[in-house]
Amino acid sequence: MDKFKNILGIVFRFFPIQLLFLHFKKSHFLLLMWLLLFGIVTQSIAMKFGIPYLFLSPEYLGEVSWISFLLLGFSMGGFYMAFHLYSYILIGPSFPFIATMARPFYKFCINNSIIPVVFYVVLCINIADVQMNEELVPLSQVVIQLLSFTAGIVVFILFSVLYFFRTNWDITKLQLRRKTRKRSIYFFVGSLFTKKKHWFESHHSRIYHPSFYIASFGKILPARDAQHYKRETLRDVFRQNQLNASVFELLIIVSFFMLGYFGDYSLAQIPSGASFMLLCTFAIMILSIFYSWFRGWAISLIAVTLIMINVVSSKSDFFQVKNYAYGLNYGVKQNYSLENLNAIQFDSAQYVHDLEHHERILDRWYEKATMEQNTDKPKLVMMNVSGGGLRAAMWTFYVIQQLDRETDMSFFQNVHLITGASGGMVGASYYRELELLSQESDSINPLDQRYLKNISKDLLNSVAFNLVMHDVFMRFRKIELKGQTYVQDRGYSFEEQLNENTEGVFGNKRMVDYRRPELAAQIPLMLFTPTIINDGRRLIIGSQPYGFMNGPLERKAHVGPENVEFIKLFEANLAQSVRFTSVLRMNSTFPYILPMVTLPTEPEIQVMDAGIRDNYGTKSTVRYISALADWIKENTSGIVIIEVRDIKKDYDIADNGRMTMSKRFMKPLSNFYGNYHHSQEYNATELVEITARDNIPVDVVTFVLRKDPSEMISLSWHLTQREKNDIQRIFNNDYNQDQLEYLIDLLKQ
């Protein structure tokens, strides 16, 4: 029994085990960071938004390659070394025997590597899983990727080890150097990163005496006794090594800002997973500075600092983070009040003018539709496309492409209005743009497979890179467009990446550039409806006036109009000059991924994703039909609403089984948000039924991507190869093919 206790004691006093236990006791901030990273790479956190793919399928220069994995590994190596540095500062003094060894920091790192090694193994397993099962990469290529990732880590660690081999001191070196002490870069940098004398020096950490330690790979030695050394001498060894580490920390911080500064160059745009690791490294460096100066008070002082910044931010423009709609004039502020909104939206003359304006557009559509459908009473075709990031963009584009293919390019010529949210509108806009260009050039064929590939290209990496490298610390970069100056943030990078992915077809096109083609019915109308988060109203954005979208004038209510027209409210701000890509972004602004867009009003308003109010576009479609019902009854045989949906309508009832205490606590909140889109669904169905009761025949044709929310295609701006293949395959299932035949029959009636 005593022998067993002795063995157990030796095991628990093994240096790596003691370090691991001390991390759980003291390094709570680091453990939370590790927990977050483990959650991401195991696809347990943020999988719905595709965040794990930033680490498991990193992109560099537009492709996943051995170079992207090498860069990810290099940044991971930097994070590992930052972890060791912080641990050395926080925990190292509790183990005086370290100072008696040659190359103390190097040996500390070896013994402090349990968490990094476990993380490396878990990450490699998940990389292999995603690359083989999601990206459909062959095993040989996966091996190359993992070797590149490992090489990146090794290169950074070797670089670090060589530096610390040369600069680290033990007791012997300390005694020699004291005789020839000179002021150097270590002294000046160290004065920032460490403090020689502290007001808390009376505090003594508990001293630990390990049984054994790992001296090098494959070599375990008993820990030497350090009790006969003076505490001051041991402290000086730790301090000198911390001074050496401070230069290393400074280089990491400088590299962070350098990458941000040169972020406009594609070569500097490292994989966003790597930039996230660099941000984590930067955070550890800052924390180590605080801890070097304030020890146990570090976390509390950081919390107090953040609270103070939050309080001051409301009173200082320095901390204000705003994003803008590019092309809009912000030199004039509009009065955003109930009185002014009523004056704009409930003007009777304008109401009549807008209705007549759209009847003229419908007349031109009618001329084209009668030929396409070979009847004097054509079906008025309208499209509702749902949000859902890049999956919705690709799905919508592919559905329209296939419908045109199956109808010999006739389908899209029958479409009069497209509305909806987020990614669906991005995909529909791209197809509409190609259709418009094809009318001007025979070289453009919207059915070309390369355009489907374009719309499915990654948009997340550029956004995430700019979020990490620019939006947090470096918001000084500006861009000038049409005489207006804007901050280059992740909103700008999203638009630029979208342009690059789509071969520049949107370019710097403005809303006004679509006014004539829509007016002539060359292309369908597109109606965007981002949500004004200040009061929940919808901002109606289109190249044409839509003054009738609030219903008949006699329905004016004390709460004011539900819908606010962008081009009327911001007429003096050159509303029609806003970039079309900015409109797409405003309609697709998912929280945190893209920044809220601030508009020039007093008080200021911000807008976000259209899906907050109407994820399927049904509300807008029904409002439009209701306003133009007389023309529709007279000139058409009814309406066909094409729904391109991310998920089917009839959700299965969720079975939560027996709930834990935490689930019971979170259920009221999760129930509200979890059923949010279900509520929109029921309201949309009711609206369509009401329209049908107004003696207007309405047929609804629905193309569905997913039958159930559990079917995993991530809601993000990134798609894996497996997800891209699934999107194309799903169109050919029995349900969607039945809907295709139904649609073709409707257009032939």
Report the CATH C-level class of the largest domain.
Alpha Beta
Mean pLDDT: 81
Strand order of the largest sheet: 9-6-5-16-17
The portion of residues forming beta strands comes to 5-15%
Beta strands, count: 17
CATH architecture classification of the largest domain: 3-Layer(aba) Sandwich
| Helix proportion range | 40-55%
Domain count: the total is: 2
Determine the number of helices (DSSP H or I, runs of at least 4 residues): 31
Q: What gap, in angstroms, lies between the N and C termini? A: 91 Å
CATH fold field value of the largest domain: Cytosolic phospholipase A2 catalytic domain
Strand and helix layout:
Layout (H helix, E strand, L loop, with lengths): L1 H11 L2 H12 L1 H14 L11 H4 L9 H25 L13 H8 L2 H20 L5 H29 L3 H9 L5 H9 L18 E5 L2 E4 L8 H31 L10 H23 L3 H16 L9 E2 L9 E2 L2 H8 L2 H26 L5 E7 L3 H18 L4 H4 E6 L1 H17 L10 H7 L4 H12 L6 E4 L2 E4 L2 H12 L13 H5 L5 E4 L2 E2 L5 E3 L22 E3 H4 L10 H7 L10 E3 L1 E2 L2 E4 L2 H4 L3 H10 L1 H7 L2 E10 L13 H14 L1 H17 L5 E9 L14 H10 L3 H15 L1
Parallel strand pairs: 3-13, 4-14, 5-6, 5-16, 6-9, 11-12, 16-17
Antiparallel strand pairs: 1-2, 7-8, 10-15, 13-15
Helix pairs in contact: 3-7, 5-8, 5-11, 5-12, 7-8, 10-11, 11-12, 12-13, 12-20, 16-18, 16-30, 20-21, 26-29
